[in-house]
Automatic annotation (TrEMBL):
SMART domains: YceI. This is YceI family protein. InterPro entries: Lipid/polyisoprenoid-bd_YceI, TTHA0802/YceI-like_sf. Pfam families: YceI.
Amino acid sequence: METQKFKIANAQSSVNWTGKKVTGSHNGTIDIEDGNFSFTNGALTGGKVVIDTTSIKILDVTDPATNQQFAGHLASDDFFSTDKFKTAFLDITAAVKQADDTYFVEGNLTIKAITHPIGFNLEVKNHNDELKASGKIIIDRTKYDMKFRSGNFFTNLGDTLIYNEFELDVDLTARLS
């Protein structure tokens, strides 16, 4: 049984987020602090990804003052509480091969010290000492104490409602370590 570890190359990897509301959406990026994938006999079996929550950037708000205000709100206790919780974690607990390069990944996602199971499809292309992994992760923010303008917790929000789910589009590069 051969086990290989691949370390995520932060500079060649990206995580793009999208949050939606009644009147549209916002998008941006967030950085990976650290991470790795484990393979046993050529198949994905585990891993961990550490996200730097203090690195959240908003790309679609171009006015500097508005962007700074919005970024401050995302960093506040209404959302990520980045002063208290500087990182979020995804621990991969299982990966089931669906097709040649596609896995259904299960893991535990921890945001604001709150952990919930999560599952998503991940395309993994392994080329000798380097791999590329990409997929979309959909997260219900209300499970992680981010209830601001959620229709589950507040009424009469009208067009100020923010949908509970946000998306992370991940595009990762990792190298054999």
